[in-house]
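Late entry, written up from scratch paper. The run itself happened at the end of the previous shift, but nothing got recorded in the book at the time, so transcribing now.
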Amino acid sequence: MCVWLYYMCFLPFSLRVSPLQKAEVVRLVRSEIKDSITLAIGDGANDVSMIQAAHVGVGISGREGLQATRASDYAIAQVRTLSVSSACSYGSCVYVRSYV
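Output as recorded:
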């Protein structure tokens, strides 16, 4: 239903949704937008399903525990060490090397 909205955005994100809804958004973008490469960034147990549903998952270790870092492809210590542009370009390069 709102796929066209995500399609128009270069970097869509969702706030204040349940863990199941986070994963569903990633699955929706993956299934409906064929050339998309999804990157999910999370910091707690509520982000694990979203991280696992994405092409590339990044877990941030912190106060909420290590569940996200254990479920992710890459782990970082702090949010400030992650630049969105570098994560997107690095994530797409990793995806191309791994899956294509």
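The first strand starts at residue 39 and ends at 42.
(Scratch paper discarded after transcription.)
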